[in-house]
Design goal:
The complex is a heterodimer of chains A (260) and B (381).
Chain A (H helix, E strand, L loop, with lengths): L7 E12 L2 E12 L3 E6 L5 H8 L7 E6 L2 E2 L5 H9 L1 E4 L11 H13 L3 H14 L16 H12 L6 E5 L7 H18 L2 E5 L3 H7 L2 E6 L2 E6 L1 H6 L3 H8 L1 H11 L1
Helix pairs in contact in A: 3-4, 3-5, 4-5, 6-7, 7-10, 9-10
Chain B lengths: L8 E6 L5 E9 L4 H14 L5 E11 L1 H14 L7 E3 L3 H11 L14 H39 L6 H11 L4 H23 L8 H39 L2 H7 L4 H40 L3 H11 L2 H28 L4 H32 L3
Bound molecules: adenosine-5'-triphosphate and magnesium ion.
Chain lengths: 260, 381
């Protein structure tokens, strides 16, 4: 298949990110296709979260270009930015819920702001999202400080999905979920992808999620993407970290689980 | 089949067979739901218990918001006979509608509320109970701080010098310019106003006494305390409060680090050392301000000012000012840290506690100052 730029939702070219002298990314390239779930893996501190922040415009690239939906977020005018922001949803590593609002109010915040929904319709939407991510209806009235870690993740996801985005960024969505919850989460993501044509950029350490949900995997190491492709392709790559990652006990267990 | 990318809209027709038919067209995504939501609600209210067929063949795009609105309408109308159904949906749309069906239950949005009168009474009671509790807890906290402080005297090796010096710099040294400037200006203003009134009695020279006593006894230390309460008391609350929010305080406790010893004592000690220094500088600059105005406006040259000052103002005034500083410092630092420890849950609570910390510290400083004034008046010092 010949790919045209139109097929790419995210295009990162020659990205360089650094904090002071500490270079996190150097000449990093990554393209994400429309309608796929891409899993980004890499050791702790290799810059997965920083990559995500660069793409969503929270960190200015020190060099290179980052395009989302075909336009560069940086240098775009206010209107373009707003229209891009409406089309994506973000789940941060720590949940990043607004602490002074209840869960339902957290979800209603972007709905009110961007869609102008009021009253019942906004509440209905919040209820829908809360139920979809597997929270109980009562949890809607809880403040974030009253939730468990896993519930915060779910609430964060519900807020990320509030606007029915075309593109979602998930930073370690299944970390802190129980295995059953994590499996349901994978199912939910795949489901959303299939029914809504969602594109998902997912940072994860969870090998089961890679098997169950991801269409492609990108491996971050040595300040760039060292391998990208289907899980099988990446697994065959001859790089020590990749070999250790997939051939380690957890990698084999996940593979066995998939095979059975 | 209309596959245009137009906004969501719908037609309703009542066929001869008594079935309601709702035909949906266009783009049923979240952004187009707002205009048609009310109409669909009214329609659903009017059609409770009717058989309904929703024709999806004209729907070009659908997302969870659109599916939710359609399902809701469907659920509200249908009387659960086999005749009610969705027809003509694309596979993906049908799947989405099916999935949404189980997620339609309403959720709770706000914490449970009683009626307004009960709520008011409840708040009143809560306020009284909380105020009492806070008072007791504050005493408890002061006690803990004093005990930890006493332990330090027994075992000075446990003193955290690095932190203490850091706080001394932040609360003392960094505050120096602003405290000095304020105090200089206040000294100048007192001299100016005093001169204006004393001139009426031909007693302009008494301006020196006025400035001297006011600045040494009261304004130097009070200004320094007020600025430090606003500057450092609030900072203490914010620092400790945000640590509390991120469970850092809990982490300290389980690691066997006593928060009072690690966080509170260095701040309290730093302030107890630095506030007298600040008060001293404030007093000196206040005198300079007063002296300058006396010189420029009233032609009292510095030499005369000094002579007059030396003759009429006892060193006791200076001591009275300075002796108050450590007490004020203790109160400001303890309240700041205490309110920080009381932060709970949300960013909002952090804000409230920070405000409270400054207000309480200022209030107590001024009350204490009044008591000191009465005390020194009584003992005639
Ligand atoms: N605000 C910052 N200031 C300075 N350095 C930073 C900052 N944010 C991240 N870094 C550095 O960038 C590197 C990458 O961090 P990042 O958070 O992206 O790691 P990660 O791949 O997401 O790790 P993990 O899997 O543990 O979440 C780290 O070495 C980190 O120290
Ligand atoms: Mg990370």
């Amino acid at each position: 298949m010949i790919e045209t730029p139109d097929d790419y939702v995210i295009e990162v070219q020659g990205l360089r990110s650094q904090f002071g002298d500490h270079v996190v990314h150097d000449n990093l390239d990554l393209n994400v296709r429309r309608g796929e779930i891409i899993g980004v893996v890499g050791g702790s501190g290799t810059g997965k979260s920083v990559l995500m922040r660069s793409i969503i415009g929270l960190k200015h690239p020190d060099a290179g270009t980052v395009k989302v939906f075909g336009s560069e977020f940086y240098g775009a005018d206010e209107k373009t930015r707003l229209s891009i922001e409406r089309r994506w949803g973000v789940l941060f590593q720590g949940g990043a819920l607004f602490s002074s609002m209840t869960v339902a109010q957290n979800i209603m915040a972007p709905i009110r702001e961007h869609l102008g929904f009021e009253g019942e319709l906004a509440k209905d939407m919040a209820a829908l999202k809360i139920s979809m991510v597997g929270l109980r209806a009562e949890a809607g009235a809880n403040y974030p400080s009253e939730l468990s870690g896993g519930m915060k993740k779910r609430a964060g996801l519900a807020r990320a999905l509030a606007l029915d985005p075309e593109l979602v960024f998930l930073d370690e969505p299944t970390a802190g979920l129980d295995p059953i919850g994590a499996a349901k989460f994978d199912e939910l993501i795949v489901n959303l992808k299939e029914t809504l044509g969602l594109t998902v950029f997912m940072v994860t350490h969870d090998l089961d999620t890679l098997h169950a949900a991801c269409d492609r995997v990108a491996v971050l190491a040595e300040k760039r993407v060292i391998a990208v492709g289907s899980l099988d392709e990446v697994r065959r790559t001859d790089h020590p970290w990749i070999q250790e990652y997939f051939a380690g006990p957890r990698g084999r267990a996940a593979l066995a689980a998939k095979a059975s | 089949m209309t596959m245009t990318d137009s906004a969501a809209h719908f037609d309703i027709d009542l066929a001869s067979d008594g079935l309601l038919r709702l035909k949906a067209f266009g783009d049923w995504r979240a952004r187009y739901m707002k205009p048609i939501d009310a109409a669909l609600r009214d329609f659903a209210d009017d059609s409770v218990g009717r058989d309904i067929i929703i024709d999806m063949s004209g729907v070009a795009r659908l997302d969870t918001a659109g599916a939710m609105v359609l399902q809701r309408t469907f659920q509200a109308c249908q009387n659960r006979t086999v005749n009610s159904k969705f027809i003509g949906a694309h596979d993906a749309h049908a799947e989405l509608l099916r999935q949404i069906e189980s997620h339609l239950a309403p959720c709770h949005v706000e914490p449970f509320h009683r009626n307004a009168f009960l709520k008011m009474t409840e708040r009143l009671g809560e306020g009284v109970v909380n105020a009492t509790r806070a008072m007791l807890e504050l005493w408890d906290f002061i006690g803990h701080t004093l005990v930890s402080g006493a332990k330090l005297i027994v075992r000075p090796a446990r003193m955290r010098w690095r932190a203490t010096v850091h706080h001394m710099e932040e609360t003392g040294l960094d505050a120096m310019p602003i405290v000095g400037l304020m105090s200089f200006l206040i000294g100048a203003v007192i001299a100016f106003m005093g001169a204006k009134i004393l001139r009426l009695f031909n007693a302009e020279i008494l301006t020196v006494q006025l400035v001297g006593i006011a600045v040494l006894r009261e304004f130097g230390v009070l200004l320094a305390a007020i600025l430090v309460a606003g500057r450092s008391g609030s900072a203490f609350t914010a620092q400790i409060g945000s640590m509390k929010l991120r469970e850092e305080i809990d982490a300290m406790r389980v690691l066997g680090l006593e928060p009072i010893e690690v966080l509170v004592l260095p701040r309290v000690i730093a302030l107890i050392i630095m506030l007298p220094v600040l008060a001293f500088c404030a007093a000196m600059l206040g005198l300079v301000g007063g002296g300058l105005v006396s010189w420029l406006v009233m032609d009292i040259p510095p030499a005369l000012f000094m002579a007059q000052f030396e003759e009429n103002i006892g060193i006791n005034n200076f001591y009275v000012g300075l002796i108050k500083a450590p007490f004020f410092a203790f109160v400001i630092a303890v309240i700041g840290c205490f309110q920080g420890m009381e932060v709970e849950g949300s960013a909002e609570s952090l804000g409230q506690r920070t405000t409270l910390s400054v207000v309480q510290a200022l209030f107590l400083v001024i009350v204490m100052d009044a008591f000191f004034a009465m005390f020194f008046l009584e003992i005639d010092y």
